[in-house]
Amino acid sequence: MFTSVLMIEKALTSADVEFVTTLHGDEQVAFHVLLQPRGDQADRLLRAIDDVALGEIDEAAREGETPEGDEAKGFGERALEVSLQALHAAGSGAVGRLVEDHPLDALKSLVDEVNADEVIVLTDPHYVEEFFHRDWASRARHKVGVPVLKLFSHSKT
Hints:
The protein is of the alpha/beta class and about 160 residues long. The chain has seven helices and five strands, in the order E-H-E-H-H-H-E-H-E-H-H-E. The chain has helices spanning about 15-20, 45-55, 55-60, 75-90, 105-115, 125-130, 135-140, and strands spanning about 1-10, 30-35, 95-100, 120-125, 150. The protein has a five-stranded parallel β-sheet, with helices on both faces.
């Protein structure tokens, strides 16, 4: 059995589930999902810049309406549950947890704890962080000791 740690920031879409569950062909994969709810207001500007870079001006204008920090925890819990149910429905084993602080430390600990074979970081594009190599995948490659695959979500939920 192949063990993947899947780091996400929102609920998986059906296309995302199909993609990650078929990456290894017929080999069974056990997923350990980490979901970090939206951060604090300091991240809002970076998300707005990403929205503008993607041509989603309306999304950039609505950044202020999106729950942040503690308010986002309930949304995160629901997104995690939906994602785990979708992975189970696709025939994969999956467990998960929310990450509230220090996501890369939590990622490293989980990789070590479950003896993971790989990390999959599945997020929307974050152009500013990616340009400066400050996105999760770039930073994880220097920390976790297993291959890190970076994928972009198929659609917004």
